[in-house]
Amino acid sequence: MRHLTLAALPLLLIACSGDGASSQTTAPGEKPFKTSVIADFDSPWAMTFLPDGRALVTEKAGEMILFDPKNGTKIPVAGIPKVDYAGQGALMDVVLSPTFAQDKAVYFSFSEERDGLKGVALAKGAFNQASDGTTKLDGVQVIFRASPYVDGNGHYSGRIAFSPDGKYLFFTNGERQKFDPAQDTKSTLGKVLRLNLDGTPAAGNPLSAKGFNPAIWSYGHRNLLGIAFDADGRLWEQEMGPKGGDEVNLIKPGLNYGYPKVSNGDHYDGKPIPDHAPGDGYEAPKVWWNPVISPGGLLYYSGDLFPQWKNSLFIGGLSSQALVRVKLDGEKAEKADQWDMGARIREVEQGPDGALWLLEDGGKSQGRMLKLTPMG
Predict the structure, then answer these.
(1) I need a labelling partner for 9 at 20 to 30 A (CA). Which of 22, 80, 145, 214 fits?
(2) pTM for the complete prediction?
(3) Catalytic-role residue among 3, 155, 221, 267
(4) What tens digit of pLDDT does each residue of 324-348 get?
(5) Are the C-beta atoms of 224 and 188 separated by less than 8 Å?
(6) Is 178 within 8 Å of 184 (Cβ atoms)?
(7) For the chain, what is the largest distance between any 2 Cα atoms, rounded to a whole number of angstroms?
C-alpha cells in the first residue's frame, strides 16, 4: 500500500530514473512559468472547465463546486450522491459530455459503500443553474459500477476520458489493493474500460470474445489515476506502481500490462516482483520512475500559451510534490522536466486560454487552485 502521509515541508526535488529515457530536472527555484494562487478548496480532486470559462471542482468529501475564476464565486452543486470518502475514497473525476452544448450532461465518478462493501461508480447528470444562481445536476443516475465491490479504502482510480470521436467513454478501475483482480478476466478491477455513453459495455471490445468482462479494453493495471488522448488519438495512462515503478503506458486494446505478475517496482512488504522483460508477454511502460513520483492527474497539452510544450503529458506528483512533464514522439515517451511545487499536486488541467491549472491535494499540504502562465 502506498503511504500518503507526508511532512509539511516541501520535499527536495528528486531526479527520475528508469526505462533508459533521458531525465532532466529544473534546478531549484528555476521555473519557466509564473504561479498565481486563484482559490483555496477543501482537498480538491479534479476540475473541468465549462464553455463560459467557469469550472466544476470536486472535493474529496463529496462536494462539487461551480467556481468562477474571474471573481472567485463558489456555488455548491446539488444532486451529488453520498460519497464514501474514507482512505483514498472521494468524489473523484468530473468531465463534460462531448455533447454538453446540447444536453448539459456532466459525468463524474465517486467511491461508495453498498451492503458493507465499497467500489467506484460512474454517474451522469444534467447541469442546471437557476436564475437565482442555485445550481444542481438534474436526473443524476449511476450508469456503471466496478465489479466486484470489496472491502478496503484504496485504489479506486475512477478517471474518465472520452474518445476523440465522442462515441465512447473510457473509465479506469483500480485493483483496490487486492493484486489478483488485475488479472481476473471477469472482474473490472485493475482495468481500463471502454463504455458507451450510457455506461453499457461498448460493442467490439477486444477481449469479450475470449470470455472477459465485456467492458474491458486493457488489463493488468494497479491504480490508474490519469488517462488522456493525444492529438493523434492515442490513449495514454499513468498509474501508481508498487514500491518503485510508477508508470506511463500507451494503452492499446486487449493488451495485458502485467500487474501484479510483473512490475518495475516491488511489493511494499519487500517481496520482489519480476521486472518487465522483452518477450514476457506483458506490455511494458513507456516511462517509469524509481524513486516514485506518485502520479495524480494526467493532461495532454494542446494549447498555444506554452507552444514549446505542445505534444507533452503533464502529471501531478503527490509524494514528489511536483509537476512532471513527459515529451511524446509518436508512440515513444521520455521524461523531460520535473518542477518542485512545494505541495502535493492532485490534478492538472488545461484552461481555455492554454494556461496550466493545478489543484493541490489538501490534507497536510494546501488545497489551492494554481494557474501557471509564461514568464514575462
Answers:
(1) 22
(2) 0.92
(3) 155
(4) 999 999 999 999 999 999 999 999 9
(5) no
(6) no
(7) 62
